[in-house]
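Reopening: structure tokens for the zinc ion complex, inputs below.
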Amino acid sequence: MLTPTIDDDGAPFWAYARQGELRIQACADPPCEELRFPPRPCCPTCHSFDTEWRQMTGRGKIWSYVIPHPPLLPAYAAQAPYNAILVELAEAPRIRLVGNLVASPDARLDSVAPDRVRIGARVQVVFTEIDGVTLPRWVLERP
Ligand code: ZN
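Re-run output (same inputs, fresh job):
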């Protein structure tokens, strides 16, 4: 499986994920305090470098998704058909995270049938460790 490349700006995101927390970077300069993703040093709204990591509830909705088709990398081909979803966070509708919808935190990528994935479905973040990195994944609020 491919794991993320963790850079200095994104390192806190992955460190919080390891603790089971979904945190999103935010501007710490009032009154702006805008959430932003992916992580970067400077606020795109007010250009402040003051940053904090705000905890999210981990709830969201599927904003869009794809069911990847071959050719796939071998590790992924073995788990096809699987989904890649774009999740709109409940607290931050303009922030969307890419991930996978699975039946449970440690389930295979093909644990949710493609016909069960639909735009607008409510999801909740879960975490699993793969190759030393804790990844956020998503489960349906009402399976
Ligand atoms: Zn700002």
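The two ends are 25 Å apart (CA to CA). The chain has one domain: 11-140. Marking as resolved unless the reporter disagrees.
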